[in-house]
Amino acid sequence: MNFRRFVAIFHKERRHILRDPLSLGMALAIPLLLLILFGYALTLDVDRIPTAVYDRDQTQQSRDLVNRFRGSKYFQIVESRADYRFIDAGISRSSVLLGLVIERDFGKKLAAGQEARVQALLDGSDSNTASIAAGYVESLVMGYATDVRQQAMSRKGISKLEMPADARIRVMYNSDLKSKNFIVPGLIAVILMLIGAMLTSLCIAREWENGTMEQLLSTPVRPAELLFGKLCAYFVLGMTDMLVALVVAVGVFDVPMRGSVVLLVLSSGLFLFGALCWGIFLSTVLRSQLLAYQISLLTSFLPSFLLSGFIYSLGNMPWIIQQISRVVPARYFIVILQGIFLKGVGMSVLGAQFLFLFVYANGVLALAMKKLRPKLV
Asked: Which site from 245, 255, 265, 308 is most exposed, i.e. has the minimal number of CB atoms within 10 Å?
C-alpha cells in the first residue's frame, strides 16, 4: 500500500465531508439528539405512580397507611374520594394506574391482630409497570402492618417481634438503581453503529452514482488504499461522536465512570472500525445510496437496538432469537461499556468480548476488500 495515495484518498474524502455541511451537521447532531431523547425521555424506573385512594375505614390507622403512600417516592396520590366509580373512571382515562381501597374496620382488625385487607386495583394495559407497582404496594402495606403489630405488642409488654431471617439487600455497581446508568452507556454502541454504518454505506455508492468511480479506476489507486483512505476520514468523525457522547454521559447525566478511559477508547475504536467496514461492504455491493442507506439501517441500527440487550433482556427472548443475537457486535460492545462505566473491570473480565469485536472487524474488512478488489482491478 502506497502511503501517498492513501493520504490523497483520505484528504479527498475529508473534503467531501466538509463540503457537505448538512451531512456533517447530522453526523454530529444525531448523537446529541439520541442522548438527550433517550437519556431524559426513556426511563425504566417506576416511580410517582398515579394513585387514587378510596378509604372506607376513615380511622387513624387507615389515614396513616395513606400517608405512607403519600410520603413514598413511588406513589403520587392524585385523588381521594369515597367511591369506586372514580377509580374505574381514572383507570379508564389512564390518569390513574393504581386504585387503593381500604376496607371497613381496617384499623380495628389490624389492632386485634386479625386479617385486615387492602385492595389494589391496577391498570394491566402496561403489564410490566403494573407488576412492579403491585410489588411496591405489597411491600409498603406489609411494612406498615408489621410496624403496627410491633407497636401493639410493645404496649402489652411483649418483646419485639423477631423475624426468623434478616434479609439485607446490597445492590452493586448501580446502587441507586437508576435506569439512565444502564441506558446511556449502551446508547454509545447504538450511536457508533448507526453513524459508522450509515455514513460509510453511502461513500462508495456515491462514487458510482456521481461517475467519479470511473476516474478512480483510471488511477493507480489500489483497493486497500481506497478502503483505508475513506475509512480514516469517517473514523475520525465517528470517534468525535464517541467523545461527545462520553462527555455528555459523564458531565450531563452523571453516569459513573469507574473504569479506564483508554480501554473505553480502544474498544470504541475497534467497534467503530467494524461498523465502518460493514458500511463500506454494503456500499460496494449495492452501488445505490438509497438502497445502501436503507439496508444499513436494517442491519445496523435495528439489531443494535433490539438484539443487543440495550433495552430488552436477551434472557427473556426465545431461544432462536438469543442465538441470532450472538452475531450482533453491539451485544458484546454493550457488555464492555457497562463493565467499564459501572463495574470498572478490565481485559481480564472483558477479554472474550474484545476478541469477538476483533474477529468481527477483521472478517468484515476481508469481505469489503474482496468485493472492492474486482471493481478496481
From this structure: 265
CB 108 within 8 A of CB 97: no
Listing DSSP states for 86-103 in one string gives: HHHHHHHTTS-SEEEEEP
Cell of 158: 411483649
Sheet holding 49-55, edge to edge: 75-80, 49-55, 98-102, 118-122
In the chain, % of residues over pLDDT 70: 89
Instruction: Please write down the long-range contacts of 346-354, taking CB distance under 8 Å and 24 or more positions apart.
Output: 346/259, 346/260, 346/263, 347/263, 350/267, 354/267, 354/270
Please say whether the beta carbons of 333 and 187 come within 8 A: no
> How do strand 98-102 and strand 118-122 relate by DSSP bridges?
antiparallel
DSSP 133-195: HHHHHHHHHHHHHHHHHHHHHHHTTPPPPPPS--------S-TT--THHHHHHHHHHHHHHHH
Instruction: Name the strand (E) or helix (H) holding 327.
Output: none
334 pLDDT band (50/70/90 cuts)? very high
Report the distance separating Cα 135 and Cα 26, nearest Å.
43
In this structure, which long-range contacts are made by residues 348-355, counting pairs with CB atoms below 8 Å and at least 24 apart in sequence? 350/267, 354/267, 354/270
Q: Is the dihedral of CA 38, 41, 42, 44 positive or negative?
A: positive
DSSP, residue by residue, 105-135 = THHHHHHTT----EEEEE-TTSHHHHHHHHH
Give the predicted TM-score (pTM) of the model.
Answer: 0.78
Round to whole Å and give the CA distance between 9 and 7: 5
Q: Which of 46-55, 200-209, 272-281 has the lowest mean pLDDT?
A: 200-209
Chain segment 16-59, per-residue pLDDT in tens: 777 777 777 777 788 888 888 877 777 666 788 899 898 888 88
Q: 248 and 32 in contact (C-beta within 8 Å)?
A: yes
Answer positive or negative: Cα dihedral of 241, 265, 356, 228.
positive
Q: Locate the DSSP E strands across the chain.
A: 49-55, 75-80, 98-102, 118-122
Nearest-angstrom CA–CA distance, 110 and 191: 55
Region 121-137: what's the mean pLDDT?
84
